[in-house]
Amino acid sequence: MSNLTIAGMSIVLCTAATAAAAADLNATQPLLCAARSAAVCEEHGACATTLPEAVNLPAFWKIDPAAKTVESRRADSDTPRTSQISKVALSGGWLILQGDEDGLGWTVTIAADTGKMILSGGRDIGFVVFGACTAL
Questions:
Q1: Alpha-carbon distance 133 to 37, whole Å?
Q2: Which of 35, 75, 87, 103 is packed most tightly, with the most Cβ within 10 A?
Q3: Can you give the pTM of this predicted structure?
């Protein structure tokens, strides 16, 4: 078997394993989520795309839907923080989590079959964060 064939099979197997792991996402198990990119928008429509840490968003979150908690460390602090999830729902293959903290409302939507994540929220500005989650 050629090295190219072995490499191709390895990629297919790794991709399938990742998809299979993501397919098990549900509201009963803890998740590790990673932010990939962010868009921040002002009231009058001016938006900027940036890295999550550039706007002080954590790079990773541990989400525990069963305990209704989100644990993270902000980009500017080493201090861990825990936020409460006020609503957990499964709808049409999506895990939807909602909460608020200090007047900032947020929603996290996670595709149960792929683990793709979208976090949106706002207070004085609006933001959308794209990333992915996997079961711990």
A1: 14
A2: 35
A3: 0.77
